[in-house]
Design a protein that fits this description.
The chain is 46% helix and 13% strand. By secondary structure, the chain is of the alpha/beta class. Bound molecules: farnesyl diphosphate.
Length: 231
């Protein structure tokens, strides 16, 4: 969700106004997700490295996150949206922790879309904790993944022209498709989400294997392969 700060600066507004508009774009994306087939949506709201930002911006972001949970929990529960938070909780205020817990309880039955807000999240730290949780047992892919708080990622969208992972879902993005856009996050609409989903569906995902036509045998397969490589 990059570009909140730049969106505001370009308009001569304080950065926090950009974050406020970013929170509105979050509401829009969450509402639009089920209609475009999204069942799991993880939003990078505050990274563990974001503590390095000025105290005033950190505090404003925390207030915004609390306000979002407070204002959205009931509506999410009504609409079948499950809201949960991934990341460290021990550095959050007691008030925010309580709000997270009550929101998670209230929305737990939601089955239309599971929205995870990554707050004080670092993928490297999450992987270390997952590996620790496996200690004493055989460390397999499945055992480690069972201790990760989010499923494998199909599509990762990054806004504002940035093209990095920034310690986000490193393991889960092993075969993610990436869509980058120059749009600032506050300008990202439901239509932009739909367009990114269309790009995703146009991709040929091979997961390290070969395209399906190479599995055919005989003359037909060879012709199909020839046709396919020409098109
Ligand atoms: C990155 O843009 C954005 C953040 C660090 C905060 C994201 C927070 C929100 C979208 C609002 C609150 C979230 C929820 C879930 C209600 P940036 O600040 O680095 O912008 P810049 O790259 O233009 O400086």
């Amino acid at each position: 969700m990059d570009g909140n700060g730049r969106w505001a600066e370009m308009r001569g507004l304080p950065r926090i106004t950009g974050h406020q508009r970013g929170a509105e774009a979050v509401r829009t994306a969450v509402e639009a997700a089920p209609a475009v087939g999204i069942t799991d949506l993880t939003l990078y709201a505050f990274s563990s490295d974001n503590w390095k930002r000025p105290a005033a911006e950190v505090s404003a972001l925390m207030k915004l996150l609390a306000a979002y949970l407070e204002s959205e929990a009931a509506a999410c529960a009504r609409k079948g949206v499950r809201l949960s938070v991934i990341g460290r909780r021990d550095r959050l205020s007691a008030g925010l922790r309580r709000l997270i817990e009550s929101t998670e309880r209230l929305t737990a039955p939601g089955e239309r879309v599971h929205v995870r807000l990554a707050i004080d999240y670092s993928s490297r730290d999450t992987l270390l904790r997952a590996a620790e949780a496996c200690s004493g047992r055989e460390l397999t892919r499945e055992a480690l993944a069972a201790h990760l708080p989010a499923p494998d990622v199909d599509l990762l969208i990054r806004t504002a022209g940035e093209q990095r992972l920034s310690d986000f879902l490193l393991w889960e993005c092993a075969y993610a498709e990436f869509v980058f856009t120059d749009l600032m996050w506050p300008d990202f609409t439901a239509e932009d989400l739909g367009a990114a989903i269309n790009v995703f569906h146009s991709r040929n995902r091979r997961f390290g294997g070969l395209p399906p036509y190479t599995f055919q045998s005989g003359a037909t397969g060879a012709r199909d392969h020839h046709e396919a490589t020409r098109s």
